[in-house]
Amino acid sequence: MTNSDQFDTRFNLLLTALERITQQIEQLGHRTDSNARAIEQTNQKIEQLGHRIDSNARAIEALTGTVSEFKRDRFRVYSLIADVAKAQADSAQSQSRMYSMMENLDERQEQLSQRQEQLSNRQGEIVEILKLLTQSN
Fold first, then answer.
1. Residue range 12-31, pLDDT digits in tens
2. Fewer CB in a 10 Å sphere around the end CB: N or C, the chain?
3. Phi-psi region of 32 (alpha: psi -120 to 50; beta: other; left: phi over 0)
4. CA distance linking residue 12 with residue 15, whole number of Å
5. pLDDT score, position 137
6. What are φ and ψ of residue 55, in 5° steps?
7. pLDDT, tens digit, for every residue of 51-92?
8. What are the angstrom distances between the C-alpha of 115 and each of 50, 75, 111, 122, 126?
């Protein structure tokens, strides 16, 4: 083998090695592109997740406000129920006083009826006495 043959062999080996390296570089390039697409998809998913997190945070804030409103409303309802219960107690007490007054009025009316009857009887007696007195004169 001459120097020229050795050079050609080495040159051919070097070209083959360069072709393999070039193919491997191309394969790495394809893998890099594929990885870049995967990273872009992951970034999009992360961005969507961020939007969902923001949306959920707003929903939680709204629900927290709603819960606070429900607590205030519940307190108001309990307060109104207490007011109604007090008003019912006051009404029952007033009704009791009214029935007591009506009972007293019934008793007084009975007494007045008895007195009126007594006065009528006396008036009848006075009329009889006046008749007797007018007849004797």
1. 888 898 899 889 988 888 88
2. C
3. alpha
4. 5
5. 64
6. -65, -45
7. 999 999 998 888 888 888 999 999 999 999 999 999 999 999
8. 96, 59, 6, 10, 16
What is the token pair recorded at 66?
């709603």
> Quick one: pLDDT at residue 107?
92
Residue-wise pLDDT tens digits, 89-126: 999 999 999 999 999 999 999 999 999 999 999 998 99
- Tell me the one-letter amino acid at 83: D
Long-range contacts of residues 5-12, Cβ cutoff 8 Å, at least 24 apart: none
**Residue 113 token pair:** 């009826």
Q: Give the DSSP H or E segment for 17.
A: helix 3-136
How is residue 89 written in tokens? 């107690």
